[in-house]
């Protein structure tokens, strides 16, 4: 049993060479991860990518096949769940239906014989603004209230590390947005280390300081949300985290600053610093909102890529912005997100248009050309499973 | 209109047919019970076949008839002990079968069904043969072993359904919230399984209390209540047996009614809460 005192503050978490095999498949091939204390860290990936398994390994609910888990520098690999300074908010909340809300929250305190459990439980319930429901049974609460009780039940123990397993997945969109902000506030307030597992990229970007994107039991890329979004290194990240227009072609020229990729008769320039692969066949991309839609052929301009002309094949209006799909010979379908600065769409299906974007907005992928298709496919499948409430466009592939 | 009367007569028939049929079926079902109850007040001698007049003597002096109360006490002892054993073992087996993966798991599941599917005569005779070859003296102990054996299957099936419906995350949450294995079992798993375990225990007791065939093979000289009645039937069942049977029946009805009333009250309370 853990000690009868609270953790002083959050602790850092380190995973070293973690591997997890189940009979018949490998959930995690080899995972190394360091999460500094006090951070809000998101593990983002599609279902079956190994993120929940990672969480369960940290909680002690599964044992790794190989590797070590360190919390605050202490090796906890072989300890039982109740010996770890870790608490979990479960996806299904897992509130004990036969106990009152108060007893649910006090459960962990009582097991550790912490002084005045009832007062501390009330305090935690006040934090999530549910103290007035302390005497109720969980079955009589709404989904959002249950979620908050589950959160109170975990944080009342002041764990060094709080694990959140898709805790907002069952809530409707509006409530989810509200809970995201509340969770973030609570994390700042209590100063714990949060490890949040989710398949919802918006949620991860809104809440986390650092995101690790997982696919097939491996971390594809890790970094701050802006960094991941603006400079994705793989086709999977480029299409799982938002959307991307990807173009694959031969490198036709290099200067110290820029890399030029031939695309049929056109060419695309990307900054060398943003392109890890610099010879042979490479894949480069740009985010749809970075593109400018032009109704007349633009004058060639240094520092801008231009593709066109092409035909508008689809226009979908979504209030704040409009999404255009443009078929450009030699480049395939290109997606453009344009803010609706004027009323409604500016061009209609069949119109002849050009697209352009600043060279510095482009990025190159680390993926070899044959990996691009697989990454795009995985991201498309993941998007299909995504229930975040946004219609995900099929990923774009130019290979 | 020629169609009018025909249609009306069909409706009339349908309107009367069902109640009559239902009444007949109920009478058919209830006559033996009513007979047993009424004849528990019969002022009879040794034979309790013809009505001799009303008396409460048999109810007030129920243990006067030779062997009735001994047999009843034996049945209670066997029922309680077999129920406790079968419920404890069966619950543990049910949890193991649902929660853990181990070798021969599906085989064990299958084997547990066998006692329910096997004719009781075969079970009883087979067990008696084993006791004989082991040289065990038949008595209360062998009856308890026999009853525990066949009750386990029913307990496993009943409790298994309850365990399957229990979200494993609840127990994981208990472990995550610093609960040791024992604390998680007694504070989370067990309370949530109680309805299933209670149902299994009631079923076990009813099966044990009721059993004649397997008991008859394995009881030696000891009488249980059903065995007593079977033997007594040859020379006339004393009215005291009717008294016990009626009392058990009334007790069962009272339990069911109380359970229904409390459940309805709880449902109403919950409905008001929402």
Mind sketching the topology for me?
The complex is a heterodimer of chains A (399) and B (274).
Chain A: E1 13-22, E2 25-35, E3 40-44, H1 51-59, E4 66-71, E5 74-75, E6 86-89, H2 101-111, H3 117-127, H4 143-155, E7 161-165, H5 173-190, E8 193-198, H6 201-207, E9 210-215, E10 218-223, H7 225-230, H8 235-240, E11 245-254, E12 258-263, E13 266-271, E14 281-286, E15 292-294, E16 304-317, E17 321-328, E18 332-339, E19 352-358, E20 363-364, H9 369-385
Parallel strand pairs in A: 3-8, 3-9, 6-7, 7-8
Antiparallel strand pairs in A: 1-2, 1-4, 4-5, 9-10, 11-12, 11-14, 12-13, 14-20, 15-19, 16-17, 16-19, 17-18
Chain B: H1 3-38, H2 57-60, H3 68-99, H4 105-117, H5 120-134, H6 140-164, H7 168-176, H8 181-210, H9 213-218, H10 225-235, H11 239-273
Helix pairs in contact in B: 3-6, 3-8, 3-10, 4-6, 6-8, 7-8
Please tell me about this protein's structure.
The complex is a heterodimer of chains A (399) and B (274). Chain A is of the alpha+beta class and 399 residues long. Chain A folds into two domains: 13-227, P-loop containing nucleotide triphosphate hydrolases (Rossmann fold, 3-Layer(aba) Sandwich); 231-385, Beta Barrel (OB fold (Dihydrolipoamide Acetyltransferase, E2P)), CATH 2.40.50.100. Chain A is 25% helix and 33% strand. Chain A contains nine helices and 20 strands. Chain A has helices at 51-59, 101-111, 117-127, 143-155, 173-190, 201-207, 225-230, 235-240, 369-385; strands at residues 13-22, 25-35, 40-44, 66-71, 74-75, 86-89, 161-165, 193-198, 210-215, 218-223, 245-254, 258-263, 266-271, 281-286, 292-294, 304-317, 321-328, 332-339, 352-358, 363-364. In chain A, the strands form four sheets. Chain A has a six-stranded mixed beta sheet with strand order 6-7-8-3-9-10, with helices on both faces. Chain A has a five-stranded antiparallel beta sheet with strand order 13-12-11-14-20, with no helix packed on it. In chain A, β1 (13-22) and β2 (25-35) form a beta hairpin. The longest helix of chain A is centred in the middle third of the chain and has 18 residues, at 173-190. Residues 385-399 of chain A have low confidence and may be disordered. Chain B is mostly helical and 274 residues long. Chain B has a domain at 66-237: MetI-like (MetI-like fold, Orthogonal Bundle). Chain B has helices at residues 3-38, 57-60, 68-99, 105-117, 120-134, 140-164, 168-176, 181-210, 213-218, 225-235, 239-273. In chain B, α3 (68-99) runs parallel beside α6, α4 packs across α6 (140-164) and α6 (140-164) packs across α8 (181-210). Chain B starts with a helix and ends with a helix. Classes of the chains: A alpha+beta (399), B mainly alpha (274). The interface between A and B is medium-sized, with 28 and 20 residues.
């Amino acid at each position: 049993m853990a000690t009868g005192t609270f953790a002083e503050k959050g602790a850092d978490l380190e995973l070293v060479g973690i591997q997890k095999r189940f009979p018949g498949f490998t959930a995690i091939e080899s995972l190394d991860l360091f999460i500094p204390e006090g951070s809000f860290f998101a593990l983002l990936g599609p279902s079956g990518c190994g993120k929940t398994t990672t969480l369960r390994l940290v909680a002690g609910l599964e044992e790794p096949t190989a590797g070590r888990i360190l919390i605050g520098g202490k090796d906890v690999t072989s300890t039982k769940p109740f010996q770890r300074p870790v608490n979990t908010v479960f996806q299904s909340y897992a509130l004990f239906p036969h106990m009152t809300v108060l007893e649910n929250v006090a459960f962990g305190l009582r097991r550790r014989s912490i002084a005045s459990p009832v007062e501390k439980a009330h305090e935690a319930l006040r934090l999530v603004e549910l103290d007035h429901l302390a005497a109720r049974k969980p079955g009589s609460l709404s989904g959002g209230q249950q979620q908050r009780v589950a959160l109170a039940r975990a944080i009342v123990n002041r764990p060094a590390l709080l694990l959140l397993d898709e805790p907002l997945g069952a809530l409707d969109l509006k409530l989810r947005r509200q809970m995201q902000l509340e969770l973030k506030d609570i994390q700042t307030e209590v100063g714990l280390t949060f490890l949040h597992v989710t398949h919802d990229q918006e949620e991860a970007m809104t809440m986390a300081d650092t995101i690790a994107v997982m696919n097939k039991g491996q971390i594809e890329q890790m970094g701050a949300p802006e960094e991941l979004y603006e400079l994705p290194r793989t086709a999977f990240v480029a299409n799982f985290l938002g959307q991307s227009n990807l173009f694959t072609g031969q490198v036709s020229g290099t200067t110290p600053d820029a890399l030029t990729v031939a695309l049929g008769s056109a060419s695309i320039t990307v900054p060398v610093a943003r392109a890890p692969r610099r010879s042979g066949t490479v894949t480069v991309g740009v985010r749809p909102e970075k593109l400018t839609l032009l109704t007349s052929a633009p004058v060639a301009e240094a520092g801008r890529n231009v593709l066109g002309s092409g035909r508008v094949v689809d226009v979908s209006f979504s209030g704040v912005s409009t999404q255009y799909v443009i078929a450009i010979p030699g480049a395939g379908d290109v997606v453009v997100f344009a803010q609706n600065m004027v009323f409604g769409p500016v061009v209609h299906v069949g119109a002849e248009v050009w697209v352009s974007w600043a060279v510095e907005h482009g990025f190159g992928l680390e993926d070899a050309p044959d990996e691009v298709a697989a990454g795009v496919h995985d991201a498309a499948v993941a998007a299909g499973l995504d229930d975040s409430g946004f219609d995900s466009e099929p990923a774009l592939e130019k290979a | 209109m020629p169609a009018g009367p025909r249609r009306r007569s069909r409706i009339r028939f349908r309107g009367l047919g069902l109640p009559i049929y239902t009444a007949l079926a109920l009478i058919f079902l209830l006559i033996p019970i009513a007979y047993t109850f009424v004849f528990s007040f019969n002022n009879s001698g040794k034979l309790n076949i013809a009505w001799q007049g009303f008396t409460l003597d048999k109810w007030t002096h129920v243990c006067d008839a030779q062997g009735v109360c001994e047999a009843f006490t034996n049945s209670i002892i066997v029922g309680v002990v077999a129920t406790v054993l079968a419920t404890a073992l069966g619950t543990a087996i049910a949890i193991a079968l649902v929660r853990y993966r181990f070798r021969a798991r599906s085989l064990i599941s299958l084997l547990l069904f066998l006692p329910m599917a096997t004719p009781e005569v075969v079970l009883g005779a087979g067990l008696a043969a084993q006791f004989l070859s082991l040289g065990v003296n038949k008595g209360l102990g062998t009856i308890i072993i026999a009853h525990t054996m066949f009750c386990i299957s029913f307990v496993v099936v009943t409790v298994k359904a309850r365990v399957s419906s229990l979200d494993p995350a609840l127990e994981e949450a208990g472990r995550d919230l610093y609960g040791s294995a024992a604390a998680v079992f007694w504070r989370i798993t067990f309370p949530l399984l109680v309805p299933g375990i209670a149902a299994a225990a009631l079923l076990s007791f009813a099966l044990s209390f009721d059993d004649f065939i397997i008991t008859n093979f394995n009881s030696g000289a000891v009488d249980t209540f059903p065995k007593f009645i079977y033997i007594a039937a040859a020379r006339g069942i004393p009215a005291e047996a009717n008294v016990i049977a009626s009392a058990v029946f009334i007790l069962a009805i009272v339990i069911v009614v109380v359970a229904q009333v409390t459940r309805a009250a709880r449902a109403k309370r919950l409905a008001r809460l929402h």
